[in-house]
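User: Last request for today: this protein with uracil, please.
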Amino acid sequence: MEIIELSHPLSKHYLTVLRDKKTTFETFRLAASKLSYLLIIEATKQLHLDDVKIETPLIETNGKELASNTVAVSVLRAGLGLIDGPKDLIPNMTFGYIGVQRNEETAEPENYYENLPEINDKDVFILEPMLATGGSLSFAIDTVKKYSPRKIYALTVISSPEGIKFISSKHPDITLLTASVDEKLNENYYIVPGLGDMGDRLFGTV
Ligand code: URA
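Assistant: Here's the final one, the structure of the complex with uracil:
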């Protein structure tokens, strides 16, 4: 599995804002939004371009136009925090949503919501900010794979070594982008040092 850890100074800055427990909900949401631009810019570096001819006010010239068809799939609910960058930057991107929960009896992940646009042969960017055990991300990847995407990218804010190991064993064909690979998971499956519960901190549910 290809793993890309962001090295841009702005990514380190906004990640620190997200980690800080003193950060307010409003500032947290803004920092997550800014980070989503940095993640999607890095993730889309290899998208295909078509040559086009255009006219400037002065002369005809050659230009480039995005040829790749792209879809962003948000894993509810924390994935909603990473929508801004993809929505604002990528022309004609479509959006899907997957809600994943753990089945109380089998302990296996299952979906409680799925609403996906056309995925066949498209580049799919899965938005799942916290790669902890990897259970929900792996489930989301399996779901997307059923619809034959061209390529899958997972965009995370923080990844645990345990989650990376799990995802790379199940899905060596994807590319993972992350702002940080943290130290470990604790006994409650939270990432350490981490940032706490991403969904709670985004939506103020603590
Ligand atoms: N989900 C979160 O929001 N935080 C963690 O640390 C792990 C999973």
